[in-house]
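stuck on whats below:

***
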Amino acid sequence: MNLDNIVPYLPHFQALLNTAAMLMLSMGYYFIRQQRHDLHRNCMVTALLISGVFMASYLTYHAAVGYRPFTGQGVIRPFYFTLLASHVILAALIVPLVLATVWLAARRDFLRHPRLARWTLPLWLYVSVSGVVIYVLGFHVYPPQI
């Protein structure tokens, strides 16, 4: 299989994955509020798997393409780079938080799991949503120069 044929489509695929993760996270939160533990678990495991596929796709894309400068000019630049910086920092921080939260749930430590999940969920949602906003800005509103 030739990756050159799929690489141009990966950012679009990644935006779909981020959107799907956001939906699974939101549904998982809804289900835990409804005491539907089985559905909560299923949504959160699905969000974790989707995020893993996203990471593989993201790394594949950037290994193939490298850095693409943001083409927006004017007032959008500081907004975009502030959003991007917060996204990148929180994306790095969310990985150990998600793993620790999952670990606590897997160990059935339902005293500490919700305490950590109260921090993990909003940060994970922020990373998912901001990833989609960055995609829209960087590939549709201000597309890269090729």
Notes: The chain is about 80% helix and 0% strand. The helical segments are 10-33, 37-65, 76-106, 112-141.
